[in-house]
Design a protein that fits this description.
heterodimer, A: alpha+beta, Ubiquitin-like (UB roll), five-stranded mixed sheet, two-stranded antiparallel sheet, 7 strands, B: alpha/beta, Flavocytochrome C3, Chain A, domain 1, Methane Monooxygenase Hydroxylase, Chain G, domain 1, 16 helices, 21% strand
């Protein structure tokens, strides 16, 4: 297949050498069907081995390679060269501390996730077989089970950019996954904790950036609104 | 962070098997447990598994664990240890219910039970017809298992060391005393002193050019323990999944055929009718991959180069595709620009799964020879291990079952051993081997790039040691591996930093990968028969008289390879010709 000539501009930073980040430019040949991750790999493997980023599954299911590509949060493995221009700008996702090149500190993101009690809570004795759930009840929270914790949503959120303590859309999505699961009993506990606090759910200002950023097509903003509504109903 | 750690149980790897092992080990009061992973746990490749986990729940039609055990043994071309298959088929039922009790959002039947669908090689009553045994959550069952187990580990407050890359397993005087790991964020070595160590690090598919495996799957631990005197069992049995996306190898679940998908050649013919008349497209993966290769070789491949096959879903109701196969539909749309609802999808066999691995007993104890001599304190589970459940060919859905059943067993046995054992002293030079592994790359001044050696390894393994093999291709690959090893000594890295030196780690991983290729190629050359996924064109038949036995590949101190054998545990199922 024919290749095209593109220029990849990458915001780079080596904490052991650079005082501040800088833009590096790499002219490369790429096939239109290459993933942006393939292009980064090409640069790392053929041009500059020190280029650093996270990767693993390379098909959008592990959540390692969220980055800001042409101003939008994307997974580098789920975006093809044919769908970007001749010049690609690649930066680390925003709002988390940059450690090196495209690698950011994910710990605050996972701390917020953990704060919403993102696990199944049901203290009834376990039945001998499965707990029953109708296909309709299962469908209610289907979308939010798709989350891969890539942080594309949270790091696209303007509220999060200005307040790093806001738990962020990803944490709320994962709370939604349990709150709307007919088998779960932990909603009161979750609302009494981080979700209901000052940097919880109500920080959301409905900017919709998260919905646009989600590589799994989760209607993130809608999920957040559903959780808000549920909390209002419960307190009414 | 302190660089010396002490835990009763250390689990290496945070996929399905590792998280399950940690959970079960941590349920013992007073037993301290930590998990080490070179990734964040949710990045583990368990999350890429799609179609389902096989268990004879009988939610859709009659099923029995005995039928599941039989299918597993037959699917494994009778190399499966039958005591292992029996235990597995019974325990996996409980394990699936346990996942549901942890909240796993399975798809549901109209009655509200766990939904089940058909999958390759899973049959009713010993081969009569396909049976709905695969318990699924749309086409992201592995994702849901990984997420659910990680969620539980948060609830259980499991200790994690994320982005720590294990470089050595401290087997000293026959017992395992812990591991040494490299912290990616700082470039520092950490020693983890442990009574029990569980290895659960998954596969090694990155030795092949076209693979469904993540970049991380470089067979690190199968190399590390090999260099510490543990043999590899049955590495010649490597599975190629029939339906990888053309050229890029991304997996399209067998569940697509379970829902009615059909493989077609360039003539539009449903060729599997010729190869497996009773279950056709749902024949086991080794048979389907071979059939696809043969169709292509005989000129009936699709496309300008006649080098792929069509997976046809166009006759299936669009709603069923969107509801039950949403992820793979998206993969085809994004990566190939093909909409499975209206067009057939170009596919080719993709390197997928190692049936072999670190040899273990049924209780996951690592063994070192054909007499089942165990290494006290060392356990292995999941794809990295060989119990041997899958024999010469794994059935679809049995990998997820393997993770939860044997991950659980590993956690139980590792904790039980730790409770009765003392910490064996660590050698004073515990980090020496790890430092040597790093220095071999950091100190090298050669001009070779790791990426070029890896690229050539992947291409030649694909050409000489994939679906079909002969003595000629394997001998050639033995020589190529020697050359690649020489070139590897000249690999150097540009990045001299300590913080997130991913270039250094990729070069180290390549060293591990080369060992994995060597294990596979030597074992494949030795086994002069065709069985399951090991298909020799110069020895086309299965030869039970000579070869109904497991291979154990040892690495001698001088770097040479020695082959030993271990009997297969037979049982109620007599080896028979494998027809479907």
């Amino acid at each position: 297949m024919d290749t095209v000539r593109i220029t990849v501009k990458i915001k780079r930073f080596d904490p052991e050498a650079d005082a501040r980040p800088y833009w590096a430019e790499y002219p490369v040949e790429a096939r239109p069907t290459d993933r942006v991750l393939d292009v980064l790999n090409h640069i790392k493997w053929e041009v500059d081995g020190s280029l650093s980023y996270r990767k693993s599954c390379a098909h959008g299911i592990c959540g390692s390679d969220a980055m800001l590509i042409d101003g939008v949060n994307r997974l580098a493995c789920k975006l093809l060269v044919r769908d970007v221009g001749e010049i690609i700008r690649v930066e680390p996702i925003r709002g988390l501390q940059v450690i090196k090149d495209l690698i950011v500190d994910m710990e605050p993101f996972f701390d917020s996730y953990k704060a919403v009690l993102p696990y199944f809570i049901n203290d009834d004795p376990e039945p001998a077989r499965e707990r029953l759930q109708s296909p309709e009840d299962r469908e209610i929270f289907d979308a939010t089970t798709k989350c891969i914790l890539c942080a594309a949503c949270t790091t696209s959120c303007p509220v999060f950019w200005t307040n790093e303590r806001y738990i962020g859309p990803a944490a709320i999505v994962n709370a939604h996954r349990f709150i709307f699961d007919s088998r779960d009993q932990g909603t009161a506990q979750r609302f009494a904790g981080a979700l209901g606090e000052a940097n919880g759910l109500w920080r959301c200002r409905t900017a919709y950036n998260c919905t646009e950023a989600c590589p799994r097509d989760i209607p993130v903003t809608r999920a957040i609104q559903e959780v808000k509504r549920e909390m209002l109903w419960r307190s009414a | 962070m302190a660089r010396a750690h002490k835990y009763d149980v250390i689990v290496v790897g945070a996929g399905g098997a590792g998280l399950m092992a940690a959970r079960y080990a941590a349920q013992n009061p007073g037993v301290s447990v930590a998990v080490i992973s070179k990734l964040y746990p949710t990045r583990s490749h368990t999350g890429a598994a799609q179609g389902g986990v096989g268990a004879a729940l009988g939610n859709v039609s009659e099923d029995h664990p005995e039928w599941h055990a039989f299918d597993t043994v037959k699917g494994g071309d009778y190399l499966t240890d039958q005591d292992v298959a029996d235990a597995f088929a019974h325990e996996v039922i409980d394990a699936v219910y346990e996942l549901e009790h942890m909240g796993l959002p399975f798809s549901r039947t109209p009655e509200g039970r766990i939904a089940q669908r058909k999958f390759g090689g899973h049959t009713r009553d010993h081969g009569k017809s396909a049976v709905e045994r695969a318990c699924y959550a749309a086409d992201r069952t592995g994702h849901m298992i990984l997420q659910t187990l990680y969620q539980q580990s948060i609830k259980d407050q499991v200790v994690f060391f994320n982005e720590f890359h294990v470089l050595d397993v401290l087997i000293e005087e026959g017992t395992c005393r812990g591991v040494v790991a490299y912290e990616l964020a700082t470039g520092e070595l950490h020693t983890f002193h442990a009574k029990s160590t569980v290895i659960a690090t998954g596969g090694n598919g990155r030795m092949f050019k076209v693979t469904s495996n993540a970049h991380a799957l470089t067979g690190d631990l199968t190399s590390i323990v090999w260099r510490r005197g543990v043999p590899m069992e049955d590495p010649e049995f490597y599975q190629f999944h029939p339906t990888g996306l053309y050229k890029i190898g991304v997996l399209l679940t067998e569940g697509a055929r379970g829902e009615g998908g059909i493989l077609r050649n360039a003539d539009g013919e449903r060729f599997m009718e010729r190869y497996a008349p009773s279950i056709k497209d749902l024949a086991p993966r080794d048979m389907v991959s071979r059939a696809m290769f043969l169709e292509i070789r005989e000129g009936r491949g699709v496309g300008p180069d006649k080098d792929y096959i069509h997976l046809d879903l166009t006759h299936i109701d669009a709603e069923i595709i969107e509801e039950r196969l949403p992820d793979i539909t998206e993969f085809a749309r994004i990566y190939l620009g093909v909409d499975p609802i209206t067009e057939p999808v170009p596919v080719q066999p993709t390197a997928h799964y190692a049936m072999g691995g670190i040899p273990t007993t049924i209780d996951t104890n690592v063994i070192t020879d054909g007499e089942n001599t165990i290494v006290p304190g060392l356990y292995a589970a999941g794809e990295v291990a060989c119990a041997s459940l899958h024999g010469a060919n794994r059935l679809g859905t049995n990998s997820l079952g393997d993770l939860i059943v044997f991950g659980r067993r590993a956690g139980i046995h590792a904790a039980a051993y730790a409770k009765g054992a003392d910490f064996e002293p660590l050698p004073t030079d515990a980090q020496d081997r790890s430092r040597a592994v790093l220095d071999a790359v950091r100190g090298a001044s050669g001009s070779e790039r790791a990426s070029h050696v890896r690229r050539d390894l992947q291409a030649t393994m694909m050409d000489h040691a994939s679906v079909f093999r002969t003595d000629e291709t394997l001998s050639k690959q033995v020589e190529i591996l020697k050359e690649l090893r020489d070139r590897y000594r000249n690999v150097s890295v540009e990045d001299t930093g300590r913080i997130f030196n991913t270039e250094l780690m990729e070069a180290v991983e390549l060293g591990f990968l080369l060992d994995n290729a060597e294990q596979l190629v030597h074992a494949a050359q030795h086994r002069t028969e065709s069985r399951g996924a090991h298909s020799r064109e110069d020895y086309k038949d299965r030869d039970d008289d000579a070869w109904l036995k497991h291979t154990l590949v040892h690495r001698e101190d001088d770097g040479s390879v020695r082959i030993e054998f271990k009997p297969v545990t037979l049982g109620r199922y007599e080896p028979k010709p494998r027809v479907y």
